[in-house]
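Input set for joint prediction.
Command: fold jointly, output tokens.
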Amino acid sequence: MSAMSTGAPVFGTDVPQPVQYGPPGGMMRRLNLVTAVVLGVGCAAIAGFVIDAVVPSTASTATFAPVAPDLIYLGMLAGWVIGFMAGIGAFVGPIRWFMGRDLTHLDAEYMAGKDLGWRRYFKFTTDHKVVGLQYLVVTMFLLGLGGLLAMLIRTELGVTWAEVFSPSFYNSMIGTHGIAMILAMILAVMGPIANFIMPMMIGARDMAFPRLNALSLWLVVVAAVCLVSTLFTGGIQDGWSVYQPLASQGPPAMLGYQMTIIVFAISTGVASINLIVTAVTMRAKGMTWTRTPILVYGVIAAALMGLYAFPFFQYAQIMALTDRIWDTSFFNPLQGGSVWLYENLFWLLGHPEVYVILIPGTAVLFEIMPVFLRKPLFSFNFAVAGIIGVVALSGLVWAHHMYMTGWAPSTNYPFMLSTELISIPVGFLVLVVIGTMWRGLVWTRLPVLAVYAVIFNKMIGGVTGIYLSDVPADQYFHGSVFVVAHFHYMLMGAALFAAMAGLAFYFPKMTGRVLDERTASIGFWTAFVGFQVTFMAMFVAGLQGMPRRVLQFDSLFNAPNQIATVGAYIIGIGMLIFAGAVVYSWSSGDRAPANPFGSKSLEWQTPTPVPLENFAVLPVISERPYTYGVPDPYENVSLNSERKPDAQRVGGSP
Amino acid sequence: MTDVNTKGLEPPDEPEAPTNRPPSMERIRTWLSRPYARGIVILSLIIGVLLLPMAWIVLIPMNVTGAPASEIMVNIEQTVFVFTLVSVPIVSFVYAVLVYSLIKWRGHKGDSIPEDKSPAIRTNTIGVVLWTAVSAGLAFFLVVWGLIELAQITSNSYGTVTADQQPGGEQSIIVNVTGQQWVWTFEYPQHDGVTTDVLYLPKDRAVYFNVTSKDVIHNFWLVELGVKIDANPGAITQTGVTPTKVGSFNLRCAELCGMHHAYMETEVEVMEIESFTSLMREMGGGKTA
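tokens >
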């Protein structure tokens, strides 16, 4: 293929092509996860030693806290992030570009993991399918970490007669559980499914910016390690929201949290741009907006929200970091800073992020239902309108988390209005689910049965959300366990179970294996039952007036907490069974057929395992999605007809 | 595909329909005569009746430490009660469809791909309009109810009250609340700055709280009185309440404030004004309010 370097005719003109130096891939051939970890750890160690040598150990801040541990830890974090990214090869592309040595086609193919076999999963691989599976593993790791912490938290709360963990370790468990789960849930659909499935769904060969795709994934890996490192540097003891100025009292682990968020926000920005550009510009010929599957809308919506929301969080953490290291006073009230500034910046992310998690999850349900009910998606326009409505309102509701802060009591009125308005677009999404179920014959497989579980939970989460949106009721519920139960119904009961449904659905396409559905179902429904027990009990404790994030409490709350702990262990068992089914099927399940569910969507028309560029010939779309079903027998007939024939049928059926 | 349930999906074999539009009651009756329609309506009603007691049930744990001790708490419980009632119809309809679908519309089982037998319903104007109207109506009701209740509890706290009930008035008590890791202190400026660590309040007097913090954010939560406001360092937040019941209540910190956040709680003693005044005098507060 050396002819590539001499020029290729495009529209009859010879276009100079980059020259191939050496074997394809160049420097990238030597870089993989091992070099990345070695370089990351090495840079962290060097930075740590240098700062330790330079900073006198007696130096202290204005508040007499020692400076050295903070600086050393920050240097190590920065060294880790930069070293790891260099070692994985994130900077090779830009450097080559600066040197005027663009990637050749062969280089690009090497980077996409062509002929690399299993090794491509441990490299800076640009193929969207590899990135999708890597995201899946990272997400499952974070969910496992968060889940383990959840079990420990519930153990502490269930053992009402003794203190199992020290208060500071308990506090760091709730903080780490919170942020690990939030990050995992942001990734749960937007990572594996949006990266693996969405490009195939729109008939594209890869994402718009494949190298940015790999970059976003490895940034998440780096951030996850920063997060885990906080457990060994004192822990995030201030909840996942790490309100200032409490956080400024915290151990060096706060810097780990801040670095996690700063890096994760870069990843989110990169990934959001990539997903939006891919979905907007790379759809197959003929795929107009009405012919675009609803998951694509969900992904665009979530990416848009992530794009505007994450910078607030990132800035807040950068400001908190400079407050801590360089004694700026953005949030320090003693020096004229404002605690409310932090709360505002935090919740400007915090609420849109809920929809970043929920909208793609809901969109996955919309993809699952037509296939298993053999019926088109009900009212596609309302699904789109619901998604647009949620996106539009998502940025206008953040201060409902601040009703009780005293920040601006008169804004409680407009924020209550905007928050309650959001029930209308969310209602559209429920309508789409109900309408699609309507008279559809259910093919009773796990993905679609999971939809029923999700909607069941979503209604409970929605109704309890109405209480919380209302200022007077929130005056009782704010900061109580009731809030915890409510958002677990939304983020776990709706979003995580939806992501599990999505995994069960796309599993054959993503892994090339058949999921052991029987075992997975046992796990799923065990977790579902445990979930109801746990969080119903927590609703009761919240109604009784139990504040959240406490490790000891009035004996009044003993019974609901012990019940909740039993339920939590049931969830844990169920999740382990589900994860076991996934891991076992992935490693030694049967080979999956290309389209086991008979879906008419584009992604299922590819062979399994999916070849490097997905489609040998790019498809052309000529009809709307979800063309299932037979003509409605009642259409244009029954409304104007006599009652008699129908009445007869009533007699004939129970 | 013998196991596929096709009940209610065969087209009714009947003559061409007349062109005149029947009255709406007739249309509803026609719709109801479909085998599934009546089932879903009945199921909705059953689930609705079963869910209706929830409106009272949610109040039981809320009152576990006694009935509301202030007008604010009465308003809060009213709101929870009404919101539960309002959400019952929608929830029971959605659950009815879920249950009916799982029982009556259960189709194919197993691994083989089923035939397409479901009706290709792309939309339904009546259904969509009805759903939008109902959900918008409910949202509107929630907003209006919420705004009215909020205005009411705001005036209960500090607003349109008589002059002697206003801050500084003859009939009112001011308490300066300070949170710090991990204790609350209460100062009574009208009683020579008596300072306590238990919150003593007189019954039937407007009480105003100036809440602040010495270190980090705390949250001042009088559970049975329905009062909640953050104690922020560097700022004073204000709220108020008129206790209507004598007794001992709970004050808890509702904002994570560090290691011993769980232990940052104390008692609220509401007493008759005479006992309150004499208690203040005992503690060294010479003047009376």
